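To close the section, here is one more complete example, presented without commentary so you can practise reading it yourself. The ligand is MP5.
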Amino acid sequence: MAFCEEQLVRVRPLWDRMLAHRFLRETRDGTIARETFATWMRQDYLFVEAAIPFLAALIPKAPPEDWEPLSGVIAALQKELKLFEERAGAVGVKLRGRRPSFVNHAYIQFLLATAYRASYAEAYTVLYVAEKAYHDSWTVVKRGLDRGSPWYPFVENWAGEAFAQYVAFLEKRLDALASEAGAAERARMADLFELTTRYEVAFWEMAATGEGWPGLED
Ligand code: MP5
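Output:
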């Protein structure tokens, strides 16, 4: 069995917890509180911003044939930031001026630490899991969300055909990197696969509860 398939089977209970999260269910059903969705928008905007230096840090570690696709991801992230800005403007949400929540801060630090300290295949594992998690999560939302909803453009962004193809590309590449890796590196990739999934669950939970920083108001 290829690496990604094997890992997706292994983390299935966690993955199912993620897909069953109330944030996704309420967004799908159109019952999510506007302020709850706005919390996710503000926090994810900061996360996507931080994903740009994460991708940039992968490039020096990557073989030359991966430079072009990774640069393409950076361009897509920049476009995505504009989608957040456009949607926030359309619905009157103030996007900027918040700190990353504790969970978001931890996830961002984890991304950067992985990019700088781990191997290319390990960091690529984190990239794949974060993208696959968002594709699957927004596919849940797509199953019920009204096309006229102001949040529908986010569904199109992550649950659409172009993103599905991008995730399939990452999966194929990660499977190849895993097949070239030794047993110890593959074990570290498996750990990162699970840890990234845990962060994705934590991110939806943070968005749903609005939790900021433990012991503090913001
Ligand atoms: C993604 C995201 C998807 N925007 N936010 C979280 C918490 N996880 C994954 O990544 P991208 O780079 O926005 O497609």
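Once you have examined the tokens, check your reading against these statements. The mean pLDDT is 97. The radius of gyration is 17 Å.
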